[in-house]
């Protein structure tokens, strides 16, 4: 019997939210999680997101939808906007999962060029089949494009993962 691969999605939650909004996608996170499983064989999907108490309902929804939510403590800027950069936490989880043998393949869901060096590492190790960019082609970082990784764009799957209007 063939052992099922453990393919993991590492999702920059803020980047996914902003990217989906930028392409006019009202993302259905439950449909998105299911689609990740079918399309990429994702067994675990880690959503890295800043913890802001007023969004408890969102966090519960994400967890019910099948995401393993990894929270980052936030600080607030001078305008009162929350800042919770999760990049380092996402990279650490991705690389530690690789070294601990917890993943067969990794999918990055982000358009952020800060992940470029980690992407090159995973490509070198044969662990990265694709990057899934929430942004359109023009807004996806040139640094990610220069890695040579295959990049797929959420806009190409909008009809599959969008929130359906109530009937």
TrEMBL record:
It holds the Pfam family NYN. Residues 10-131 form the NYN domain. InterPro entries: LabA, NYN. One of its GO terms (molecular function) is RNA nuclease activity. This is NYN domain-containing protein. It comes from Candidatus Jorgensenbacteria bacterium RIFCSPLOWO2_01_FULL_45_25b.
């Amino acid at each position: 019997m063939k052992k099922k691969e453990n393919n993991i999605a590492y999702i920059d939650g803020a980047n996914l939210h902003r990217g989906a909004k930028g392409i006019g996608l009202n993302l259905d996170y439950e449909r998105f999680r299911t689609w990740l499983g079918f399309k990429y064989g994702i067994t675990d999907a880690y959503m890295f997101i800043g913890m802001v108490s007023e969004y408890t309902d969102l966090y519960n929804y994400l967890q019910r939808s099948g995401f393993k939510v990894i929270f980052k403590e936030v600080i607030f800027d001078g305008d009162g906007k929350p800042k919770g950069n999760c990049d380092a936490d996402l990279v650490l989880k991705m690389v530690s999962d690789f070294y601990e043998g917890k993943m067969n393949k990794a999918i990055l869901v982000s358009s952020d060029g800060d992940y470029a060096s980690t992407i090159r590492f995973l490509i070198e190790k044969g662990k990265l089949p694709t990057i899934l960019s929430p942004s359109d082609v023009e807004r996806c970082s040139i640094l990610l494009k220069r890695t040579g990784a295959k990049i797929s764009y959420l806009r190409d799957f909008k009809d599959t993962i969008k929130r359906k209007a109530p009937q």
